[in-house]
Amino acid sequence: MLANWTHSIHHDGSPRYVQRSGSDVGASAQLWLRMAADAPLTAVYLRTCPDGEEALTPMAPAGADGVCRWWRAPLALRMRRTSYRFLLQTNEGNHWYNAAGLQRHCPTDANDFVLLADVHAPGWVADSVFYQIFPDRFADGDPANNVRDGEYTYRGRPVSARPWGAPPRQGHGAAEFYGGDLQGITRRLDYLQELGVNALYLNPIFLAPSSHKYDVADYERIDPHLGGEAALVELRAALTARGMRLILDIVPNHCGATHPWFLAAQADPNAPEAAFFMFHRHPDQYESWLGVSSLPRLDYRNERLRELMYAGPEAILRRWMRPPYSIDGWRIDVANMLGRQGSSNLAHKLGRGIRRAVKAENPVAYLLGEHFFDGTPHLQGDELDATMNYQGFTFPVWGWLGADRGTQAPPWADRHPLPTAALADQWTAFRAAVPWQIATQQLNLLGSHDTPRLRSVLGGDLQRVRLAAALLFTYPGVPCIFYGDEVGLEGAADPDCRRTMPWDPRAWDSELRAFYQRLTHLRRAAPALRHGGFQLLLADGHTLAYQREAPEERLIVVARRADDGRRALPVRHGGLPDGARLREVLSGATTEVQGGQMALSGLPALGAQIWRVEA
Fold first, then answer.
1. 81-124, pLDDT tens digit by residue?
2. Are residues 455 and 504 in the same domain?
3. What count of Cα atoms within 13 Å lies in the side-chain half-sphere of residue 377?
4. At what angle do helices 510-525 and 462-474 cross, to 10 degrees?
């Protein structure tokens, strides 16, 4: 079925549709709106709300381009946050168009398009492919600093040194150590560079008794078992020499029960540090992360704590951004909980304060938050640059591909595959709720240290794994690979997902690694994937298709999870005229648009194609 004219209406925040004179308040922008040449419009208006009062500005016709008609209007950026949408008039009535799509009713402002001004954005992120590393499990560069069997006791259990490659044991995970360290990462940078990675995200490396190190014992020391401060300096220098970036993981929501702050608070209820925590009955009843006693929560009602963590001139978040470490940003652990405790809700206050501190040290630092739920209230330009995009990307992709949640899935988990239209709707909902500048900074991932691994989620089906990877590298935002996924590493829920990286190439799925390598290099080379717009072309049956469009390049991605009989894709509503020629990036196949459609020859029953428009 061919799309009607309403499906041809398109605008997003990408350079093809928003041309800005600058990034500061006082700059201006030219906005472009595209639709079918035969769209029955009588007038188009740009609706804004300067200083809180509605304004409707007539848009001027800006010519036709093949099967498209364009409208244009100027927009003055008088505020740090300028929201807008479009009013389309026809002989049959009015329509409103915003980031959530076309509506016949007048919508709220919640899903308006948004332009941000005076916002320090990490522009380098758009050119990045991230790689997440759990340091203890990636590579052992210096066996001399390894944790020894029984070296100390962790939560009543002697720690154990495990041989590389042995599977993590259920119930032992945090007390098991494999010897991975920062030196190991430095020695494997050639591997990562060859893969196409140019940015690293490391799980915590600060002094802590566990292998996961989310129970920080000292925010101002790098754990000696990971190589200490010298190893971080060495890694930073090696990354800089390769033009690669580095962000670290920090846990401001809680510390470990062995942290000197907490020990002082337990020892003396009148100690200054006692106000850093929330005691119900001193010394042993206190607020902790999800009731885990080894992770006492921090109370940010205390001004001194805020000074130490981020606000003061020598604060923890600031010092690691300075030479010789010069990290490029932070991943904030459990950002969804930070500053929230019962009637005390300082979440946005902390978010804005942390942003001010981080951007004061480096205006283009990347401020990333962990958020398994709806993090969009923190993604409006004055707090986080991005979240780990679980709800806006990961989980709907899992659901669409028929993820096997296994016996550990909660009883409310959907056991049925997500309909294709529902996948598109969830993507749209989370993308429309944030400014486009933020949407393109979101960290997209297919799994992490907190989830089962992708290959296990998809039941070992490598065709579905490759399809998921194609979506990861072509969807708006920045892709992140969890170490080992590129060679087919498996793993159920924590601790099994934290297996050691296999370094014997005979244990790799070399075809999968080569596929990831092609995608990383395509992502970094293609303007349409780095900063192009996004238009959904089809979400029907088992087939999903979308367009990524930049001034220099146009790509069409077609993904199919099962053969639904579709043999052609309607593309006229995406602005492609008959006679347009396309070449498939991965196979070299060619096709031509005829009758408003492009043939899907060569598309497997389960797989993806990436088509580049050539003429």
1. 999 999 999 998 999 999 999 999 999 999 999 999 999 999 99
2. yes
3. 8
4. 10
Q: Which residues of 113-152 are buried (b: 16+ CB within 10 A; e: fewer)?
A: bbbbbebbbbebbbbbbbbbbbbbbbbbbbeebbbeeeee
> DSSP letter string over 558-588?
EEESS--S--EEE-GGGTPPTT-EEEETTT-
Q: How far is CA 195 from CA 125, 206, 429, 524, in A?
A: 18, 27, 32, 12
pTM (predicted TM-score)? 0.97
Q: Return the ∠ at Cα 123 (arms to 122 and 129), rounded to 5°.
A: 90
CATH number for the domain that contains residue 249: 3.20.20.80
What string of H, E and C letters represents the secondary structure of 206-270? EECCCCCCCCCCEEEEECHHHCHHHHHHHHHHHHHHCCCEEEEEECCCECCCCCHHHHHHHHCCC
What is residue 416's predicted lDDT score, i.e. its pLDDT? 87
Number of domains comprising the chain? 4
Tell me the C-alpha to C-alpha distance, in Å, between residue 193 and each of 130, 241, 245, 322. Answer: 11, 12, 12, 25
CATH code (residue 38) = 2.60.40.10
Q: Is 379 exposed, middle or buried (0-12, 13-18, 19+ CB in 10 A)?
A: buried
CA atoms within 13 A on the CB side of 24: 1
Active-site annotation, residues: 333, 370
> What number of other Cβ atoms are within 10 A of residue 169's Cβ?
13
Cβ–Cβ < 8 Å for 244, 199: yes
Residue 614 CB contacts under 8 Å (≥ 6 apart), including other chains: 581, 582, 583
Give the tens place of pLDDT for each residue, 217-266: 999 999 999 999 999 999 999 999 999 999 999 999 999 999 999 999 99
Q: Are 474 and 557 in contact (CB under 8 A)?
A: yes
Residue 80 is classified by DSSP as S
Q: How far apart are CA 138 and CA 378, in angstroms?
A: 32
Determine the structural domain holding residue 316 and report its residue range: 125-254+301-529
Helical residues (DSSP H) of 475-552, grouped into ranges: 510-525, 527-531
Pairing of strands 199-202, 245-250: parallel
Burial class, 504, CB count within 10 angstroms (exposed 0-12 / middle 13-18 / buried 19+): exposed
Residue 406: φ, ψ to 5° = 70, -170
* DSSP-assigned letter for residue 311: I
Three-state DSSP state, 87: strand
The chain-wide mean pLDDT, for the chain, equals 96
* 276 close to 265: Cβ distance less than 8 angstroms: yes
